[in-house]
Design goal:
Length: 295
């Protein structure tokens, strides 16, 4: 139960005296009406004959069904508390919504507002404003088990936490009006908007614990087999045709020295040209016969 501020304690004392109730009963009802955002209350206290429900401008229900005096007392007390809450509200009441789906069956439950930190009748709870302060006041918030969420419609932001680091999402053009937490074979969080049911994971992440997410690391460029630097490319031999003219780098017989050593060196050069495919076997044999004839 939230703690009362000095003005809250004064209000409880005044209402307890006016209605002839204990301060504990009035405090219980004050919290119940606050949880109902000032428009409804679900309560359970012995001085109100146990469990009951009040709705502003609607029906008041108590366990003692035919006790009209008790119904009148509850209605008047809750109406006064509702007016006092509105007068001491430091930020607009926030609507809350929640649902939980278990084993494929969705059970709707009444959401409870978390307004203690937004009303001067209560001592602010530092842990209640768990979302980043720069988001301001949410247009709606709620909780389900460990899941808590705060929706900021004007700034298109949604803060979500499951008891640890808060995540902030960009809601894009979604107009969110409900949440659902799926439990069972793996937890997932969905919300409903004008586009139907949407998985929370499809929204862009703005920050995690106040820090923007890191961009994914750049993928290394694929490596290609490039020729080694400063190494000349190797010429591929071409298939010579029978009609090709004699290559210009084949030494002519006239240029060959008459010395035996020069002829042998020339033959070696011709053999190298043949091995590399620059001259044909027939051309090599012809030159070889000509050179050897000079020995």
């Amino acid at each position: 139960m939230p703690s009362l501020s000095s003005s809250g304690e004064q209000l409880v004392q005044s209402l307890a005296s006016r209605y002839g109730l204990s301060t504990d009963a009035v405090t219980h009802m004050l919290v119940a009406v606050s949880n109902g955002n000032g428009s409804m209350a679900q309560f359970n206290h012995p001085e109100f004959c146990g469990a009951g429900q009040w709705m502003r401008g609607g029906m008041t229900m108590v366990s003692d069904l035919f006790n009209n005096n008790l119904k009148c007392l509850v209605n008047n007390l809750c109406s006064d508390i509702s007016s006092e809450l509105a007068n001491h509200q430091t930020s607009p009441f926030s609507g809350s919504f929640q649902s939980q789906s278990q084993n494929g069956n969705t059970a709707q439950s009444q959401a409870s507002g978390q307004m203690g930190s937004a009303n001067s009748l209560f001592v602010p709870d530092p842990s209640s404003n768990w979302w980043p302060s720069e988001l301001g006041s949410p247009s709606s918030l709620g909780s389900q088990n460990s899941l808590r969420y705060a929706y900021f419609a004007n700034s298109h932001r949604l803060a979500v936490t499951t008891g640890g680091t808060p995540w902030v999402y960009d809601t894009l053009d979604h107009q969110i009006n409900g949440f659902s937490q799926q439990q069972g074979g793996g937890q997932s969080i969905t919300f409903t908007s004008q586009y139907g049911t949407v998985d929370l994971s499809t929204l862009p992440v703005v920050s995690r614990d106040g820090t923007a997410p890191l961009d994914p690391p750049a993928q290394p460029a694929p490596q290609t087999n490039q020729p080694a630097v400063n190494q000349p490319a190797v010429n591929q031999p071409e298939s010579p045709s029978g009609n090709d003219s004699q290559p210009s780098n084949i030494p002519s017989a006239a240029s060959v020295s008459e010395g035996g050593e020069d002829i042998i060196a020339t033959l070696e050069r011709l053999g190298s040209l043949k091995d590399k495919g620059y001259i044909t076997e027939e051309e090599f044999a012809s030159k070889k016969s000509e050179l050897l004839g000079r020995l």
